[in-house]
Amino acid sequence: MRGFLASRYLVWLLGALLGGYSQVAWLLAHGGRQEAIARLSLGPLAGAVLLWLVAEALARAGRYFGWRPWEPLQRLGLWVAATAWSLSGLANRGGRRAWLIALALALVLSSLPAYHLLLRPLQGAGLVRQYFLEHLEPSGPAGLRCLLLEGLDQAGPVNDLGVLQTWDFASLEQVPGGRQRFFALRGLGVIEVPKSGVYGFGGQADDGLLLLIDGRVVVDNRMEGPARPMWGKVYLTAGLHALDLRYLQYAGGASLRLQWQPPGQDRQPLGQANLRPLAAGTPLAPITRLRLAHGLEPRPFSTYDPWESGRFWGLSW
């Protein structure tokens, strides 16, 4: 048994590294924090098993030609194991005790950042989605509840413009609300996605756009500028998800063209999605409180003032 393990654990180690690397690359390309733990734990295991099965198949095929790969791998594995055992201090009782203490401390110290960086945002996303579902318009047209905020700090009066389904405005004259400069539009509701997968959201905006799904930032480009592409991706499970978008107009021209992209499809107007608005008069403060409490939005003291010299600043300290 010892020889079997020693001759194969290098293959398992290489497979685990390749499997872990593939999952890290996938997460970096597609996002999907809600499945990060599963991918990073099962990816190395799957990689180790798959590479071992491939190696076993090749070894059995090589035996036909008299090739015996496991014997040299066994000698190499035993030498690497003995060297690592000696250099790490595990060959004596004191070294093994030190490693156990270090492992216990690492687990304890990593639990707090793991909670704050992974579990707490996931809980917050679920609570934000639940709040939206509890405050949906019971009946009426499809679309998103559109609010006009007079002032880019979004602290001024809020005017309910009703339910809008089309979020495609080619010029300032087409933007609802009748204002010319220094205002924000906020769209609130839920979007129904037909299947689980990576979805794209964004489009083009002049000037700024902030788009949140379940309270998580998907697109964040709030700077003043001409119409330009803005795009982000997020992994969503099948069902209803909270959609919160904010369009910012500073001065000059204005345009907005919002799109989304289901898995395996081309980009299409956001208005073609299955959208349901929040009910009129829904309190908005609980949404911000939930995002602040679960790390989905930075605390006010950790960012610069949102309105300064005609620009929107979102720089962390």
Any overview of this molecule?
This protein is of the alpha+beta class and 317 residues long. The protein has 2 domains: 2-87, no CATH class; 134-297, Jelly Rolls. The protein is 40% helix and 26% strand. Strands 1, 2, 4, 6, 7, 9 and 12 form a 7-stranded antiparallel sheet that branches. Strands 3, 5, 8, 10 and 11 form a 5-stranded antiparallel sheet that branches. Strand 1 (144-149) and strand 2 (158-164) form a beta hairpin. Helix 1 packs across helix 2 and helix 4 runs antiparallel to helix 5. The model is unreliable at 301-317 (pLDDT under 50).
What overall geometry do the principal axes of the alpha carbons give? Answer: elongated
Helix tally equals: 5
Look up the CATH topology of the largest domain: Jelly Rolls
How many domains is the backbone divided into?
2
CATH class of the largest domain: Mainly Beta
